[in-house]
Amino acid sequence: MPSKVSAGLLLYRDAASGLEVLLAHPGGPFFVHKDAGHWTIPKGEIEPGADLLETARREFAEEIGFVPDAKSFLPLGSIQQKGGKIVHAWACAGDLPTGFVVRSNLFSMEWPPGSGVIDQFPEVDRAEFFHLAEARHRIKAAQIPLLDELERKLGR
User: Fold this and answer.
1) Count of domains in the chain?
2) Which of residues 120 and 71 earns the better pLDDT score?
3) DSSP state of 31
């Protein structure tokens, strides 16, 4: 079976204390008490024939509830996650509006398992900017090379 393919967008900004990146925390009951190693860049699966960058931009908007006003995108390449999923990524400079609250799309699942009750949960329950050192601690290990590539491309 072919691996799933996703595309994602890494928003970054220059803060007084250095470069920061926006990471998303997955929503749903499985991730409520999970933190380090579980955050991710906002991303989603690619529809057949869809443009990778356009998918990354759309998924960012669906998962975060915000469309970055970026004019240029840095290609960060692709990584393969532990489960085999290939993630293509781009970075763009930007920021979230003051007081912004994540408005993510929802997914349905049976919860609690075996209950027969179908509930809806946000794909992303929160998003935060982190300095690169902290981002490396929070993000899925397989996605760390995307942070490294951003740092390399920005010459930091």
Assistant:
1) 1
2) 120
3) G
- pTM of the predicted model as reported, rounded to 2 decimal places: 0.94
- Decide: 12 and 22 in contact? Cβ < 8 Å: yes
What's the CATH number where 88 sits? 3.90.79.10
Q: Which residue has 């912004």 as its token pair?
A: 100
Residue 87 CB contacts under 8 Å (≥ 6 apart), including other chains? 5, 6, 7, 8, 41, 43, 78, 79, 80, 81, 142, 143, 146
For residue range 115-125, list pLDDT tens digits in order. Answer: 999 999 999 99
Query: Percent of the chain having pLDDT more than 70?
Result: 99
Mean pLDDT of 9-18: 94
CA atoms within 13 A of residue 97's CA, in its CB half-sphere: 10
Range of the domain at 106: 5-154
